[in-house]
Write a structure and sequence with these properties.
Shape: globular
Distance between the termini: 57 Å
Largest sheet: 5 strands, mixed
Strand order of the largest sheet: 1-7-6-3-4
Order of helices and strands: HEEEEEEE
Number of strands: 7
């Protein structure tokens, strides 16, 4: 391999690693029911807002709560919703008002 090939390969790997880590929700999509939903760690390409919606009927329902998200890793994300929801909720990460990622969470009574 030439130096040029190594540099190109390293750059491609860096871009792939960066893209793979962007706009991610936790692997575990089960959360405890509470008036403050603890969603875990969320990674975002850019600063934005996390919106949590009711998803009991399998479609995006009413907005339950929001939280500001900064670019990079956001650990221990907690969204106040004012009551303890049941069933499922849908978390939608928006940047500049546009959805960039979403995940369903199953709310468990513990």
């Amino acid at each position: 391999m030439t130096i040029k090939t190594l540099i190109i390969a390293a750059a491609a790997a860096a871009v792939t690693a960066t893209s793979a880590a962007a706009n991610q929700f936790p692997v575990d999509n089960r959360i405890d029911t509470s008036d403050i939903l603890e969603l875990g760690s969320i990674t975002a390409d850019n600063a934005g807002v996390l919106e949590v919606y009711d998803y009991r009927l399998g479609t995006q329902g009413r907005l339950l709560g929001t939280d500001q998200i900064h670019a990079g890793a956001n650990t221990d994300v907690r969204v106040p919703v004012g009551f303890a929801p049941t069933g499922q909720v849908l978390a939608v990460l928006k940047v500049d008002g546009q959805p960039v990622a979403s995940q369903r969470f199953f709310v468990e009574n513990n």
